């Protein structure tokens, strides 16, 4: 079901609309009930007054009627009753059997229904009815004339004479119209007051909600000490208490995690530092053994070479752990120098003997100059190129281009591509994680398992970005973007 646009608005709008709807319903209902009660009382009062006056006039004129009356007597009787009210425009008709006499010659009393005639004749009771005529609303009253009683209390029999009255209700209708206008005029101020109250109520409701939103944002930004001021004891106060308790628990949990992380980093740094001295001695011994390996028997020579290789790997792991410890401690710094990045890439490949193994597409000299840390740039290129050679497929190539980044100036984009099977989609988000291994991925079965993590940290130190992906034609591609201009 599609939601109305208004229902998708803010909480303030929904509260105002809700209050306004309640106000409209309450105002209209109250106005309708008040109008109905006032209209009923007004019409009832006017009706009772007319009926009472009509009865009095009929009682006063009935004794002068001779029985059985003639048409002339009926006309005289109707005229007598009609003219008794000089302020009211009464139309009167008197009937006796089939004879009829009216206060106005030729008046047919079209608004008088047969049912009213029959009720007056058969029930011998006073009847009345409000009708609509061509000249507006009117009240029709029928009264039977009884023998021996002018009070018409039913103690005497009917004389057969019936008198009917039609009187205009224009004045009563005017009062009703004025009442309707008054209700309409009162509705607008009532709605205005309701909207004002809605705004005030919305403000009172939304103030703690806005405070909760601000506090939640501060928590998301890392300000875990944020707390809400609690006022009252309603549901919003309970929500504020719950938020404060949750924030306190979260702060304590994060603090404990940070303490554990700090201990783990300190442990890794201490272990790495303590291992460097014995590793240096081991490396020196293995160097000597490597020189004499040719003079040893084959099994001993194989064991010596294996120890030498594993010692080198262990030394590289310790160096990488020390480097990661410096990153974690925030102690890793940049030693910037203005260099030609393309030339630096060539030197990195040449220093490792990869200039003939890895193809390059680099810009002309001095095209990509920028302030970078040459040592860390060398680590970035070496780790990515070595990773492509070990876990990708040849041919491997390194490409560099200079691009303009909106708002940040020129950027050197370095791409390292291989022709291997690529990186599985479920592994891509984790390739820069420390020690991440996947049986189906291009796992780093040799080395420390920290090469790509160290690469990412070095790129981030320069304010750049590094991403991993797959080429449409097959193979993986690592893309590094480094700003070419940095303040010293």
UniProtKB/TrEMBL annotation:
PANTHER family per record: SENSOR HISTIDINE KINASE GLRK, TWO-COMPONENT HISTIDINE KINASE
Ranges of residues in domain Histidine kinase: 270-486
Main location: membrane
GO BP: any one term: osmosensory signaling via phosphorelay pathway
Nucleotide-binding among keywords: yes
Residue ranges annotated for the HAMP domain, each copy included: 203-255
SUPFAM superfamilies: ATPase domain of HSP90 chaperone/DNA topoisomerase II/histidine kinase (SSF55874), HAMP domain-like (SSF158472), Homodimeric domain of signal transducing histidine kinase (SSF47384)
EC code(s) of this entry: 2.7.13.3
Cellular component, GO, one term: plasma membrane
Name of the protein in question: Sensor-like histidine kinase SenX3
Keyword Transmembrane helix: yes
Top-level EC class: transferase
GO MF annotations in UniProt: ATP binding; phosphorelay response regulator activity; phosphorelay sensor kinase activity; protein kinase activator activity
Keyword annotations of the record: ATP-binding, Kinase, Membrane, Nucleotide-binding, Phosphoprotein, Transferase, Transmembrane, Transmembrane helix, Two-component regulatory system
Compartments in which it is found: Cell membrane
């Amino acid at each position: 079901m599609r939601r109305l646009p208004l229902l998708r608005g803010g909480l303030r709008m929904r509260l105002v609309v809700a209050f306004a709807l309640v106000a409209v319903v309450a105002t209209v209902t109250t106005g309708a009930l008040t109008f109905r009660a006032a209209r009923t009382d007004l019409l009832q009062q006017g009706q009772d007054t007319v009926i009472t006056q009509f009865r009095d006039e009929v009682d006063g004129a009935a004794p002068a009627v001779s029985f059985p009356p003639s048409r002339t007597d009926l006309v005289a009787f109707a005229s007598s009753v009609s003219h008794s009210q000089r302020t009211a425009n009464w139309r009167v008709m008197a009937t006796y059997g089939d004879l009829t006499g009216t206060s106005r010659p030729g008046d047919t009393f079209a608004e008088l229904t047969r049912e009213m005639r029959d009720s007056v004749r058969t029930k011998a009771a006073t009847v009345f009815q409000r009708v609509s005529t061509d000249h507006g609303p009117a009240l029709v009253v029928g009264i039977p004339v009884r023998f021996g009683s002018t009070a018409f209390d039913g103690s005497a029999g009917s004389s057969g004479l019936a008198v009917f009255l039609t009187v205009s209700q224009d004045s009563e209708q005017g009062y009703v119209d004025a009442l309707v206008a008054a209700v309409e005029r009162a509705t607008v101020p009532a709605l205005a007051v309701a909207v004002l109250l809605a705004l005030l109520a919305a403000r009172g409701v939304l103030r703690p909600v806005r405070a909760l939103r601000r506090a939640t944002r501060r928590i998301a930004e890392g300000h875990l000490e944020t707390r809400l001021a609690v006022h009252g004891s309603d549901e919003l106060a309970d929500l504020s208490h719950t938020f404060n308790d949750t924030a306190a628990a979260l702060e304590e949990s994060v603090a404990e995690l940070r303490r554990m992380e700090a201990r783990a980093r300190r442990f890794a740094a201490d272990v790495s530092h303590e291992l460097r001295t014995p590793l240096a001695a081991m490396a020196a011994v293995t160097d000597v053994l490597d020189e004499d390996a040719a003079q040893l028997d084959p099994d001993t020579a194989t064991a010596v070479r294996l120890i030498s290789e594993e010692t080198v790997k262990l030394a590289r792991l310790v160096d990488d752990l020390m480097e990661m410890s410096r990153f974690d401690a925030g102690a890793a710094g940049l030693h910037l120098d203005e260099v030609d990045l393309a030339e630096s890439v060539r030197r990195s490949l040449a220093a490792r003997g990869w200039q003939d193994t890895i193809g390059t597409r680099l810009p002309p000299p001095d095209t990509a100059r920028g302030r970078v840390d040459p040592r860390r740039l060398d680590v970035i290129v070496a780790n990515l190129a070595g990773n492509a050679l070990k876990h990708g497929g040849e041919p491997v190539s390194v490409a560099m281009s200079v691009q303009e980044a909106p708002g940040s100036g020129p950027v050197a984009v370095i791409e390292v591509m291989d022709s291997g099977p690529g990186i599985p989609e479920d592994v891509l988000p984790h390739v820069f994680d420390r020690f991440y291994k996947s049986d189906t991925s291009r796992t780093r079965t040799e080395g420390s398992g920290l090469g790509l993590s160290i690469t990412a940290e070095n790129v981030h130190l320069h304010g750049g970005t590094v991403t991993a992906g797959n080429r449409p034609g097959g193979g993986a591609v690592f893309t590094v973007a480094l700003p070419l201009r940095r303040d010293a």
